[in-house]
Specification:
The chain has 268 residues and is an alpha+beta fold. The protein is built from 11 helices and 12 strands. The chain has 3 domains: 57 residues, Arc Repressor Mutant, subunit A, CATH 1.10.10; 100 residues, no CATH class; 75 residues, no CATH class.
Length: 268
């Protein structure tokens, strides 16, 4: 176990300045500006303090602060959302992580979903024991988010309508179509429901598959929403897609151009 060792008077003074003027994470550039030293010298200091257990490195040049009361540097991330914002910005928290935040699900997911404009090699990184699921999106599709304060750090999270659309585009972000459908039904029953906004976002995203999945689910579970269903029909693109790309789909619903698992047909 990595233990925290003592610091000299000057190091304590400098580290106190770091803790006072940062927001949970610290970069070499920030340390350089705070301590008025060169980036090279700042990098050496951060590395030394990490070895002593006062900081923990999460990526080259980026460290998290170890709480002063901690007895060891081997601690889990205090707030993974803050780390995600630092490492993957421009980005936002989405998928099941956002659904949890908006009370659209009672399921507990250990992995944090992050939609980012970056193109990381590792799409399933594990940082200090916390798993992340990364999806790359274009910068123009970053909309429909809300700012959330996590301590002193402002983090973006998809609003309820955008959260549902992202999961309908990629059901994996909702834990699969079954789980995504449960969240969608909770959305329909909640004060957060805004089908006009949902359709508006879907048009802006320009993803044809979303209207096929959305229209099918509305027709199946909320047939009274005729205006939204008709809007989905008017936006249908050519070609057929699967309700969930991860599932074997045997039945084609021609009016929605949607392949669905045979089990879904038998349930109806």
């Amino acid at each position: 176990m990595e233990t925290i060792s003592g610091l000299g008077k000057e190091d304590r003074k400098r580290l106190s300045a770091i803790f006072r003027e940062t927001k949970g994470t610290i970069s070499v550039e920030e340390a350089s500006n705070i301590l008025k030293v060169s980036p090279t010298e700042a990098a050496k200091m951060l590395s030394r303090w990490a070895k002593k257990g006062w900081l923990s490195r999460v990526r080259r040049g980026i460290y998290i602060l170890i709480p002063l009361e901690a007895r060891t540097a081997e601690i889990p991330l205090e707030d993974p959302w803050i780390v995600a914002e630092r490492l993957y910005s421009p980005c936002y928290i989405g998928g099941w992580s956002a659904a949890e935040y908006w009370d659209l699900t009672e399921q507990v997911f250990r992995t944090v979903v992050v939609l980012t404009t970056q193109k990381p090699r590792d799409r399933l990184p594990v940082i200090k024991g916390t798993s992340f699921l990364l999806r790359t999106i274009s910068e123009k599709t970053i909309f429909g988010t809300k700012p959330v304060w996590r301590g002193k750090v402002k983090v973006s999270v998809s609003d309820p309508s955008r959260t549902l659309l992202d999961m309908l585009i990629d059901p994996k972000l909702g834990g699969g179509i079954r789980s995504t459908t449960d969240m969608f039904l909770n959305y329909l029953k909640s004060e957060k429901k805004d089908l006009e906004l949902l359709i508006k976002y879907a048009k802006r995203l320009g993803n044809g598959a979303v209207f096929k999945r959305l229209g099918f689910l509305l027709e199946r579970y909320a047939s009274e929403q005729k205006a939204a269903i008709d809007e989905c029909k008017s936006q249908l693109t050519t070609g057929n897609v699967k309700l969930d790309p991860a599932l074997k789909s045997d039945k084609l619903i021609t009016r929605w151009r949607l392949w669905v698992p045979d089990s879904w047909i038998k349930e109806k």
